Every structure is written in structure tokens, then in C-alpha cells.
Amino acid sequence: MPESNRLLEPILDWYAGNARDLPWRAPGASPWSILVSEIMLQQTPVVRVLPVWTEWMERWPTPASLARESPGEAVRHWGRLGYPRRALNLHACARAITERHGGEVPTGHDALLALPGVGEYTAAAVASFAFKGRHAVLDTNVRRVLARAVSGQEYPPKATTPPERRLAASLLPDADRAPVWAVAVMELGALVCTARAARCADCPISDLCAWRLAGKPAHDGPARRGQTYAGTDRQCRGRLLAVLRQAHGAVPKDALDVVWDDAPQRERALDGLVTDGLAEVLDDGTYRLPG
User: At 251, is the secondary structure helix, strand, or coil?
Assistant: First the structure.
């Protein structure tokens, strides 16, 4: 029996009873709200995204409403989600949607992929979840579930490979159920088949899982290590950006100097913020969010 037929029903049945109640999954969620959620959820857990997403949707319910603002306002209201270039990407997306697509998120996968900051996964996710398209949606959670259940590997490769894409495409059900299948596998990876501690006893496909049936062999690839943060350039950039976000106007240099003691690292981080378009230095030597 094909793997798609064996895995499909147990996973869809599990999802029907265990799916989290998330606002971007609500029946009336707009394509824009789904696009914003997908970009915010990249490398960021749901619990941190929810309050920021809610604020964004209240403030900018349409692409046009965000496009009217400066990029700096998107950065300001990004809060502490991390990887703030995503805020710039969303702002650029809003402008592109407004200018090229009449303010409506495009429905086609290729048109989505052409938007600023939208990659293969995000285009497939929005096409599936917002427009009920039939696409293989491969985020980290989906890749891990398929690696274990079908390929018998504890972890997928670091980067998505052609065999993974072919496998995911081969498992797609009919068009009516493909979007639910995509989000159901994703949810299973997020809640049960997790990276650190797979809960095989709670898994609806444990009796079909190639990795479990093989005795859960350890992954022979590079070890997964937790990211360090304290003392890094990322932390320094975050401190500096927090000062700029809290100010409504330009900030003198000494207001930035006091938040990080290591001067060479601080200057490197500040230069990086300017280079990345997350900050601007004015003629008088003060700094602000991008205007």
C-alpha cells in the first residue's frame, strides 16, 4: 500500500482532535494574516509570535496599511521576535503587493515566490493555507516527520534536498485534503515528533514509523547544538535596536554606547544594523530606525 494511504488517515484523524486553536488558522483568516504569520513563525515559537501577530493585525490589517508606514515602524513593532530583517521583508512585501497586485496577496505560487523575502516554504505554505492549493509544504517539522516515518532517519539533512521534495510530492493527497495534510504533518512535528524528545507513545503513526521500527537509530550527521546567545553580536544588536525602537526620533550615540560595554563589538554591531537597513545614521551623528 502506498505510504500516502498508510499515513494520511491516522495523521488527519489525529489533527482533527489535537490541532491548536491559532487565529491564522481560523476559517476567516485573510491571506495577508497568514503570510504575516508564516514569516513571523520562521525560527520563532508560536507562544512568542501570537501577541506580536495580534498587534500587527490590529495595526496593519491589510498590506496597504503597512505599506503606508515607514520601514522603521515595522521594525519598531517587531518587538523581540528576533531576526528583525523579517520585519523589513514584510514591509517590502506589503509595498510589492500594493503596487503590483492591487493590495491583494497573489494566489499563485510563482507570484508569491517573487515577493521580497518569500522563499520556497513560505510560498507553498501561503498558497496551501490561504488559497487551498496543492503544494508540498516542507518546513523543519514536516521534514523531520517524513525523515523518521518514511526514511527511517532521526533528522533530515540540514538543507532541503531533491529527494525530500520528491517524497513530499508523492505523499500529497487529493486537492481537497492537501492543505489539511500539510498543516497536520506540521502540527505533528511541532507537538509530538519533536526534535529533542519524540513522544512516540502519543504518535498516531508510531506503528508505521520506519525510524521507531528500526529501534530509533541515532542520527549519524552533525550533532544538533543549542544556539548560544549571551555575549554574541546578535545580543548586542538586539540591545542597540531596542534603544532605537523605544525612541520616537533620532538617538544620540552615547545613548547607544551605554547599553553594551565592549566598544569594538558594539561598533561592529551598529555598523551591521546600518548595513542591513535596520538603522540609519544621520548627518549629525545620531541614529534612528529606517525612515
Answer: strand
